[in-house]
Design brief:
The protein is mainly alpha-helical. The chain has helices spanning 31-38, 47-57, 68-90, 114-130, and strands at 25-26, 62-64, 99-100, 108-109, 145-147. The chain is built from four helices and five strands. It has a three-stranded parallel sheet, with helices on one face. Strands 3-4 form a two-stranded antiparallel sheet. It starts with 24 loop residues before the first strand and ends with a strand.
Length: 148
């Protein structure tokens, strides 16, 4: 997979205009990118270092780590999640907007800011009003989920 370039960002480079990609990204496709970031101290990361990974993840809701070939990349991405979040916060990088995971309609992803949290809680309230007793879980992270 060839990651998309910076053209997916608007001129201010602070707002991603990529649409959701319901396909699961194979871990092997980001292994090298993740290894490069892991080998570099967070304080040395630049936007150009992070851009290939951001482009590969743009619009994605999940990374496949189920096969041996995909597991290494998925595990590296999981290892980078705290650094990614810290980098995004300190550099005003865009975080994902609402998108459905797969075609199930059972797992949703919202923006990682307070507005995203409020939207997630509103969505859960609506679902629970329609289906009393429904249990919902909220994960607050800026990276896609990983399937093993």
């Amino acid at each position: 997979m060839e990651p998309a370039g910076p053209s997916q960002y608007q001129s201010d480079a602070d707002k991603c205009v990529v649409t959701a990609n319901r396909g699961i990204l194979r871990g092997r496709e980001i292994r090298v990118i993740c290894q490069i970031l892991k080998d570099k101290p967070l304080k040395m990361w630049t936007r150009s270092d992070v851009e290939p990974l951001a482009s590969a993840l743009a619009g994605r809701v999940a990374v496949d780590g189920r096969s041996a070939e995909d597991r290494a990349g998925a595990l590296l991405l999981d290892d980078l999640s705290e650094n990614q979040e810290e980098f995004a916060k300190s550099n005003a990088c865009p975080l994902p907007q609402l998108s459905s995971v797969g075609n199930s309609g059972l797992l949703w992803r919202f923006g990682h800011d307070e507005a995203g949290k409020a939207a997630a809680l509103h969505w859960i309230g609506t679902l629970q009003a329609l289906h009393p007793g429904l249990v919902c879980t909220v994960f607050r992270c800026s990276t896609p989920c990983t399937r093993y």
